[in-house]
UniProtKB/TrEMBL annotation:
Boundaries of every DAC domain copy: 84-254
Protein name as catalogued: Diadenylate cyclase
Superkingdom of the organism of origin: Bacteria
Function of the protein: Catalyzes the condensation of 2 ATP molecules into cyclic di-AMP (c-di-AMP), a second messenger used to regulate differing processes in different bacteria.
Organism in which the protein naturally occurs: Chitinophaga parva
Length: 270
């Protein structure tokens, strides 16, 4: 294979092409990740600075290129600080796609307990879907976080620890309007309800519909930087929605929610 490609009088190596493709891939991934967030404008600003820097270097303008070079050197540290949540999410998304992630072909092939029964997961799913359907039918607001690969960090001072089996009746009681635990979110980890009355981070995504309030915004907020699913029942409209990876899917049916939970809790391990 020829090592060098000739293109309009210029010589490129295959590695240069690969290098360029990887940069384009990374920029597209970053664009998709940041689209809709406030950090997106900062990202565009940085792209402009980089573009100007390469232009002045190409035009051999030493003073401007020196100033921009220094700005970019310090800028790397600033980028890590400014984009800390986005970098975290990016690495999380990348980790999900590695050959060793739980969804990967290799893991499924070599997972020792790939034939295990999913009775417990199915029980959890049925209880959650039953509770959510009943709450939605009666216009009782609810917010349930299903934490998968790592635990949700929450303020334990404000929340109430529960540590119980997942039961539809318990979930319905918790969100009943008169209940002292109905405000805030319920956290489910594995087969247990861990805590109630949890205050979550609120998303500042400007692309969310204006009609959604704090319950839906905090559902989006908790999924922006972590691998969780957030289920919301709207008190106002009696509808069911869920948020995942910072995206809100509104007005789903109980069947849609069930298949989402199956994908998350069963298929991911099957
Ligand atoms: N940061 C938060 N973390 C967890 N729960 C929250 C948070 N902020 C608000 N909530 C919950 O959301 C409720 C208020 O919901 P609000 O009406 O503002 O939102 P909404 O998205 O319009 O929901 P709904 O459609 O049910 O009215 C509060 O009573 C509280 O239970």
């Amino acid at each position: 294979m020829k090592d060098v490609i000739h293109f309009y009088g210029m010589d490129f190596r295959w590695l240069n092409v690969l290098d360029l493709l990887l940069v384009v891939f990374l920029v597209i991934q970053l664009y998709r990740l940041l689209k809709g967030s406030l950090a997106f404008n900062i990202f565009l600003g940085l792209l402009v600075v980089y573009a100007v820097y390469f232009l002045v270097r190409f035009l051999e303008m030493p003073i401007l290129s020196n100033i921009l070079q220094n700005f970019i050197n310090v800028g790397i540290i600033a980028i890590i600080i400014i984009f800390q949540p986005e970098i975290r999410k990016f690495l999380l998304v990348l980790g999900k796609k590695t050959p060793l992630s739980k969804d990967s072909f290799l893991t499924k092939l070599f997972l020792p307990d790939k034939f295990k029964s999913y009775r417990e997961e199915e029980h959890v799913i049925n209880e959650i879907v039953t509770a959510v359907s009943h709450l939605a039918n009666r216009n009782v607001g609810a917010l349930i976080i299903i934490a998968t690969t790592y635990r949700v960090k929450f303020d334990s001072a404000a929340s109430i620890t529960i540590d119980s089996n997942v039961s539809a009746r318990l979930i319905e009681c918790i969100f009943e309007k008169g209940s002292p635990l109905h405000d805030g979110a319920l956290i489910v980890v594995g087969h247990r309800i861990l805590a109630a009355k949890v205050i979550l981070p609120v998303s500042d995504n400007p692309d969310l519909p204006t009609r959604v309030g704090l319950r839906h915004r905090s559902a989006v907020g908790i999924t922006e930087h972590s691998d969780n699913l957030a289920i919301v029942v709207s008190e106002e409209r009696g509808t069911i929605s869920y948020a995942e990876d910072g995206t809100l899917t509104m007005d789903v049916s109980p069947e849609d929610l069930k298949s989402k939970l199956y994908t998350l809790l069963v298929d991911g391990y099957a």
